[in-house]
UniProtKB/TrEMBL annotation:
<dbReference type="GO" id="GO:0004222">
    <property type="term" value="F:metalloendopeptidase activity"/>
</dbReference>
<feature type="domain" description="Peptidase M50">
    <location>
        <begin position="9"/>
        <end position="216"/>
    </location>
</feature>
<dbReference type="GO" id="GO:0016020">
    <property type="term" value="C:membrane"/>
</dbReference>
<keyword id="KW-0378">Hydrolase</keyword>
<dbReference type="InterPro" id="IPR008915">
    <property type="entry name" value="Peptidase_M50"/>
</dbReference>
<keyword id="KW-0862">Zinc</keyword>
<dbReference type="Pfam" id="PF02163">
    <property type="entry name" value="Peptidase_M50"/>
</dbReference>
<dbReference type="GO" id="GO:0006508">
    <property type="term" value="P:proteolysis"/>
</dbReference>
<keyword id="KW-1133">Transmembrane helix</keyword>
<feature type="transmembrane region" description="Helical">
    <location>
        <begin position="204"/>
        <end position="225"/>
    </location>
</feature>
<keyword id="KW-0645">Protease</keyword>
<dbReference type="InterPro" id="IPR004387">
    <property type="entry name" value="Pept_M50_Zn"/>
</dbReference>
<keyword id="KW-0812">Transmembrane</keyword>
<feature type="transmembrane region" description="Helical">
    <location>
        <begin position="82"/>
        <end position="104"/>
    </location>
</feature>
<comment type="similarity">
    <text>Belongs to the peptidase M50B family.</text>
</comment>
<protein>
    <recommendedName>
        <fullName>Peptidase M50 domain-containing protein</fullName>
    </recommendedName>
</protein>
<feature type="transmembrane region" description="Helical">
    <location>
        <begin position="160"/>
        <end position="183"/>
    </location>
</feature>
Length: 231
């Protein structure tokens, strides 16, 4: 039970820091986020407003988000937008480096994070190319099982390693060029700038974000069900 609590706490902490980084960089750029959500904002058990920002806490803790006014975001240059979107993954990588440094020292921690990032990217590539069978793909439940096993072996060292693993994975995953993720914003906005288009408020873009968001949520749900019934 304790390893599960530790694993969930680390996951929640990683998500919170990720979203806080987006929020902070948006405020630095002069934007006031419309919404700050921890967990997917579906059937939240807490909703409150502080100033102009709505804060949401949902039991679906595998995600989160900071919603910005697209028209106000369009007023920023692409480099300033880039800083906002990359802030979340950067926060996760920074946390992973700090945790790894506590275990291995500053020099080795960089190598470990590079290796973990490379392994995550390789795994994603194998899934995309079909080199990995569907039965071998795990979701949040499989991840928690693995992290619980690591923590059970050595609670102190294991917790730090899980902290590095989750933050590195979260950082890499969010940089994928999928519309609902940070990498999607970075990629689409960069492409939009190259084409000379200034507005992000088109229907096609809105639909792509909507579709990809629920697609990701659906995939996570299916993987969760698979993990539960195939254990």
């Amino acid at each position: 039970m304790i390893p599960l609590v530790i694993s969930l706490s680390i996951l929640i902490l990683a998500v919170v820091f990720h979203e806080m980084a987006h929020f902070a960089l948006a405020r630095v750029q002069g934007l006031v986020p419309e919404q700050f959500a921890i967990g997917f904002p579906i059937k939240p058990f807490y909703k409150g407003r502080f100033g102009a920002t709505e804060f949401i806490l949902s039991p679906w803790l595998i995600g989160g988000g900071v919603r910005l006014d697209p028209k106000k975001l369009d007023q920023l240059s692409y480099p300033r937008q880039f800083l906002i979107f990359v802030a979340g993954p950067a926060a996760n990588f920074s946390l992973a480096l700090i945790a790894a440094a506590l275990v291995l020292g500053p020099v080795d921690s960089v190598a470990v994070n590079q290796e973990m990032s490379s392994s995550t990217i390789t795994a994603i590539g194998m899934i995309g190319s079909g080199d990995v069978e569907l039965g071998q793909i795990g979701g949040p439940v499989a991840l928690l099982r693995m992290t619980c096993q690591i923590i059970s072996i050595d609670p102190h060292l294991g917790s730090l390693l899980v902290f590095v693993l989750i933050n590195t994975s979260l950082g890499v995953m969010n940089l994928l060029p999928i519309p609902a993720l940070d990498g999607g914003h970075i990629f689409i906005d960069g492409f939009r700038v190259l084409l000379g288009k200034k507005s992000r408020t088109g229907q096609a873009l809105a639909y792509s974000h909507f579709f990809s968001f629920y697609l990701l949520f659906g995939v996570m749900g299916l993987l969760t069900v698979k993990d539960i019934f195939t254990h």
